[in-house]
Amino acid sequence: MRSTSSTIRTHRAARTAAAVVVGALALSLTACGASDDKNSDGDKNSGGTTPGAATVTLPKLNGRSLEVAAVWTGGEQANFKKVLAEFEKRTGAKVTFVPAQDPIVNFLGSKIAGGQPPDVALLPQPGAVKQAVQKKWAKPLGAEARAQITKNYSQGWQDIGKVDGTQYAAYYKAANKSLIWYNAQVFENAGAKEPARWADLLKVAQNVYDSGVTPFSVGGADGWTLTDWFENVYLSQAGPDKYDQLAQHKIKWTDPSVKDALTTLAQIWAKKNYLAGGPDGALQTEFPVSVTQTFTGGAQPKAGMVFEGDFAQVNIGETKAKVGTDAKVFPFPAVGAQAPVVSGGDAAVVLKDSPAAQALVTFLASPDAATIQARLGGYLSPNKAVPLSAYPNPVQQKMAKALIAAGDDFRFDMSDQAPQAFGGTPGKGEWKDLQDFLKNPADVAGTQAKLEKDAAAAYGNGS
After folding, report:
1. Which among 63, 64, 212, 413 has most CB atoms closer than 10 A?
2. Could you report the per-residue pLDDT of 72-91, keeping only the tens digit for each?
3. Looking at domain 179-331, which of 3.40.190.10, 3.90.79.10, 3.40.1400.10, 3.30.160.40 is its CATH number?
4. 0.90 exceeded by pTM
5. Using CA atoms, how far apart are residues 441 and 265, in angstroms rounded to an integer?
6. Which residues, given as ranges, of the chain have pLDDT below 70?
7. Do 285 and 220 touch, CB atoms closer than 8 A?
8. Distance between CA 86 and CA 88 in Å, rounded?
9. Crossing angle of helices 256-269/198-210, nearest 10°?
């Protein structure tokens, strides 16, 4: 899961969001069960939507067939198919899920060249949305979809679905990518407490290591997990203004602020014994395994902590660990003055302009669709009309509440704002450069040079 336009760069500093997230997640994260955010018929904390109630009118589409493409696999794909089943039930249309490969723009390009584009695609990067518009693949959203977006989304989430002022995308899924999950039994055995600052995280890592457990599981085979590590360190250490400038390539990757962030990352990445399997093992570990191996093996898992977003709950659910009891979470610690808040998301885009395709995106922009997937877990929606009670446990309810309360005060995933050749292609650009850095964290200057060369080529402003 990874996940813009110039509007993102006008967002206010992330302080409010950081405070909200830190405050919400610092509360006691208890086992799944009844929440203090009660919400059946009139939750004062919800958007007033009764779970399961139809709030959007959809046309009858009997006999129509649709294809929707996304890179989701496993639990994410299975849960999304349940949402599509509800659309089928309400409209009479037949929807087929088309598994896409990364980078999805390349996948769609081959489908379009072959004359078989899907009707709708879920794009995990704003840069991909912009590319789809530039290639004239994406179609503007219709009035019904725009009405749902205006009604249910904050201005910031509306704006990142626009290109040159036109609404092309509806953000169906959001992610809080500033979280570290930990094995509660490992922390208890190590006498470790949830850290609030980077220096505290380093102390916790040493405590976990001294207790006989490797501190971190890193899914380095998926380069996007490494860009997320960098972005959280950089946002907190360099600040939101520098973050925006680097996201636009208005400053170079050879800037001293990048050196500082890479040097900070090396405080963990350079300690081979801190990484499950060492750097070589991390580079062979895909994201889902990085999560599951943290929560299997009882009191002796392969690692005590794993960094990634709220969506890690889907993978935790594949183990016997219970979120809130066995698997707990804390906000990414502050490196600088403020803790970072990095968001990502997946946006629905119409590729074949038809009443059926527009109806599907309208449905995905409504609280009806998001409420279904929220109940299944491992999912957050930026749709503010989704009731908190739809989320299946107090941990996720607090995450959802923090996301909505943050409003426009967040920073979108930097690599997802970049041209896909730099920020979203396996084996190339930032993904590959940071994988090389994980292998050799001593080469800060060389990594900066490679990052700048690849960024300049992708942004088309230098060599």
Report:
1. 413
2. 988 889 999 999 999 999 99
3. 3.40.190.10
4. no
5. 8
6. 1-53, 409, 461-463
7. yes
8. 5
9. 20
